[in-house]
């Protein structure tokens, strides 16, 4: 397995090692020694997260995921043949990814490390649910590594089979939580039925956690944001700026602050930050030249997707199309816009134009609690 990993991927991982571990790694074999010598590649840029994309495929096996290295600006393909079932990407957990097998209509979650080829199902939920909202919260714990911290997964709403005969499926007005430290699910409380309905029908799985609140955005226009205050189990609803004019809208977190990215009908892509009092403040607009290049012959932002981390925000569509990135440049002390070419070919063979879902994460070969 190790010999199949790209050299620049290993070099990036080695750049994160302390000196004693780096010395041991470099003495393991000639290939690792060469990669370890590439340590100078890691300056301030070694903290840049990599873009990982999984194709969104229906009814057939997912063969590979695709990685973009932001340091060398190149793409790699990693085989996913170790996964027992076709899966959909839910979100990142440190250097792991949260996924859901697609063989069942009911939600079942799993985690994997595509770099070490480790995979593990999470326990079954207490309540069988279809299409609930899923959110991830990292738990600060001094005993855990940065790349593999403790985490909680929240599942809200969804459709469940009614206990009474002939009633069919009903919306499930409860909130359930998985704690990685206990490896168990528990029902943590009720939720308003109207929130359960909207989270089930109009909310994708993407969630953002910021300052004690877990947020989701509705996928129906006009957009709105729903939040769960974790400490009090209190639900809130937020308006979205220019909600009726946005052709796409996504939540990300930038420097710890909830950020809304949206494309205005007939206009540019804008970014707003949530400030005190649940108000939004416009912080950035995509430069016109990047918008023209990104949209190409399209006249709508409707097919745009977005993923972000504290240090970078990516706008993308499919695997072959280029991406626009707004990223922190540490040595300049500011954020700048970049263009990233899409993944078009490997080994002389063209890559299909696949719809994808992306996440940002730091590759790691470190051992985790996945068996």
UniProtKB/TrEMBL annotation:
Residues 1-34 form the F-box domain. Pfam families: F-box-like (PF12937). InterPro entries: F-box-like_dom_sf, F-box_dom, Kelch-typ_b-propeller, SCF_F-box_component. This is F-box only protein 6. It comes from Quercus suber. The gene is FBX6_1.
